[in-house]
Amino acid sequence: MINLTPETKKDIEECLSEYVTKINGQKPFNLSLSQYKVDKPWGYEIWLDLTEFYAFKLIHMAEGNMSSLQSHEFKVEANFVIEGIAEVLLENEQGEMESFIFEKGSGWTVPVGRKHRVIAKSSYTALEVSSPNLNDVIRYNDEFGRLNGKIDSEHKI
């Protein structure tokens, strides 16, 4: 059994309140997956589902682009590449950044609090499952000047 801190519970409740109606509104019927699209400067995400237990996304990044160097206070995530090649910079237990290459059929996990960045070596698409803390983004470096947390302009619905 997972014991969530009050802060984590509050963060999840806020995300559910903010996004569930939007995501469910993009589903053809209740048990299908959503087509709720979040445009990013490096590509896009399709938020397929969101519950109190998990968030499920399809992520596409265009070749040569990279995500923010970021970490999460509450969110834990796992990614599985279904197309293309991604380089992942992931902070190890000693606080040093390590580089890994992931191709179709492989993936990675990001523990809570670890800095990480994804670089599209070719255009790539991945499936991501995470805890439902979708606004929990601490950005250390972002080529597009984005700040921490949710970027309102990326959500058009």
What does this structure look like?
The chain is built from one helix and eleven strands. With 157 residues, it is mainly beta. It has a single domain, classed as Sandwich (Jelly Rolls), CATH 2.60.120. The chain has a six-stranded antiparallel beta sheet. A hairpin with a 5-residue loop joins strand 6 and strand 7. The longest helix is centred in the first third of the chain and has 19 residues. The radius of gyration is 15 Å and the shape is globular. The relative contact order is 0.23.
Topology:
Elements: H1 6-24, E1 36-40, E2 43-50, E3 55-61, E4 69-71, E5 77-83, E6 85-91, E7 97-103, E8 107-110, E9 116-120, E10 124-130, E11 138-141
Antiparallel strand pairs: 1-2, 2-3, 3-10, 4-11, 5-8, 5-10, 6-7, 6-9
Entry summary:
The protein is built from one helix and eleven strands.
Brief descriptors of the model:
six-stranded antiparallel β-sheet; three-stranded antiparallel β-sheet; Jelly Rolls; mainly beta; globular; 157 residues; 11 strands
Order of helices and strands: HEEEEEEEEEEE
- Total DSSP helices: 1
Say what the CATH topology is. Answer: Jelly Rolls
Number of domains: 1
Overall helicity:
10-25%
Overall mean pLDDT stands at 93
